[in-house]
Specification:
By secondary structure, the chain is of the alpha+beta class. It has a single domain, classed as 3-Layer(aba) Sandwich (Aminopeptidase), CATH 3.40.630.30. The chain has five helices and seven strands; from the N terminus they run βααβββαβαβαβ. A seven-stranded mixed β-sheet has the order 1-2-3-4-5-7-6, sandwiched between helices. It is globular. The structure holds coenzyme A. Coenzyme A binds next to β4, α3, β5 and α4.
Length: 176
């Protein structure tokens, strides 16, 4: 059981453009090995605001989630803008969930995953996909995601994309 639940630290709410500096500050701290430009976050918030959430206590952003509909087995490259959402979207893609260390173990991560899954269901998607980095595959497995490469169905193009993240990146899918 978490020692202090996330309710004591703030709450998840829709991300606003004014949150972007705080979101980037979290990303810089949490993902030093996977840097992404502010323009990448700004574009995803603009293209699919319903998939972008911020965890905040007052003005401070302590965590964020970014997600959007996308093409199955074709994850966007790291630090790449999308241009537009694909008309052929056939999976709900979780680009990132990131919490500052002080928010981890609080239950905030499980809640936001549940919120993203609910959004995917509401949009009628049969799967949710993501690229797991930072040793997070165990966390995602805990939430029902399976490592597709481990099932040996990953193709060469997808394998190349994953190496653009790092050698340990795993493409994971949850069937709804
Ligand atoms: C990934 C992240 C969002 C998870 O949030 P968290 O608060 O640390 O996770 P939780 O404590 O809620 O863990 C939930 C469960 O998953 C398990 N878990 C967490 N990380 C795990 C891991 N690396 N391996 C196996 N299980 C893990 C926990 O044991 C916990 O299980 P329990 O409910 O039975 O106790 C957070 O650690 C984070 O922001 N990490 C840095 C950013 C990142 O890597 N994001 C993922 C990018 S794809």
């Amino acid at each position: 059981m978490p020692e202090l639940s996330f309710e004591a630290k703030g709450q998840w709410r829709p991300m606003a453009a004014a949150d972007l500096p705080g979101v980037l500050a979290v990303a810089d701290r949490v993902h030093p090995a996977f840097p992404e430009d502010g323009a990448v976050f700004e574009e995803r918030l603009r293209l699919y605001p319903a998939g972008c959430l911020a965890f905040s206590s007052g003005a401070d952003v302590l965590g964020y989630a970014v997600s959007h509909p996308w093409r199955a087995f074709d994850p966007p490259a790291l630090n790449a803008r999308l241009g537009e959402l694909s008309r052929r979207s056939d999976t709900y893609y979780i680009h990132d969930v990131a919490l500052l260390p002080e928010l981890r173990g609080s239950g905030a991560a499980a809640l936001v995953v549940a919120l993203l899954i609910a959004r995917a269901r509401k949009e009628g998607f049969a799967t949710v996909s993501l690229v797991a980095v930072n040793g997070s595959a165990g966390f995602w497995a805990h939430h029902g995601f399976h490592d597709v490469a481990a099932r040996k169905v990953v193709d060469a193009a997808l394998a190349r994309k994953l190496r653009g993240y790092d050698d340990a990146a795993a493409f994971m899918v949850r069937t709804l």
